[in-house]
Amino acid sequence: MKRLITAVACAAMVVGLAGCGGGNDQDTAAQDIPRVSPDMLISAETASAAAGNTLSLSGEGIVSDGNKLTAVYVTDPVGAADGVTVSIEQFSDTLSTTDIWNEYENARILRTDNEKIEGIGADCYVAYPYIHIYDRGCHISISAGSGSDEGQKALLTNLGTTAAVALESLIPAEAVESGNVIQ
Which of 115, 133, 168, 178 has its CA 20 to 30 A from that of 32? Predict the structure, then answer.
């Protein structure tokens, strides 16, 4: 009987240790991926240059809504010209990259007036007044100006490209491709 209890205890310890060993590499890699703030993607200076107005971060600062962070760049005085809004929803321990992709794709499907944009992130579309980008397990949305003409599209595409390049420099592709992200 003692041998049976000892064998069961040893087996339980082996299973317990094996379960702990594999998670550390993933947790370490996930911890190396920073929480990306929208002002890391588009700065006030970049927003100002693109919009052709002097913009600054609104008095509210970076606003958090769950896994989504938003920066609103406004003119002084507020409303003197169009502002720029940048949001990013990033994977976390409570929201997987698959969840973010599904939300992104479902929103795109609902916007029948969307226009696919090639060459920005893993997937990108414009549905005025926003450009939406899915890249590296994150959903970026940017609004700037108003209208739905080629000038507006160029403005959104310029800001979207800037944001995607910044995101790609912050989150390595290998981390997402190998699954070493917080799921």
Answer: 133
Phi, psi at 57, each rounded to 5°: -60, 135
> Cα 133 from chain centroid?
8
Residues 137/182, Cβ–Cβ less than 8 Å = no
List C-alpha distances in Å: 38 to 24, 59, 90, 108, 136. Answer: 29, 15, 11, 21, 15
Do residues 166 and 47 touch, judged by C-beta distance below 8 A?
Answer: no
Residue 6 tokens read as 């000892």
Alpha helices in the chain (DSSP H): 2-31, 38-41, 44-51, 97-110, 150-170, 173-177
Q: Tens digits of per-residue pLDDT, 83-106?
A: 999 999 998 888 889 999 999 999
As given in the structure block, the two tokens for residue 4 are 């049976």
How far apart are alpha carbons 126 and 129 in whole angstroms?
8
pLDDT tens per residue, range 42-70: 999 999 999 999 999 999 999 999 889 99
d(CA 17, CA 83): 54
Residue where the block lists tokens 């549905």:
127
Query: CB neighbours (10 Å) of residue 102?
Result: 11
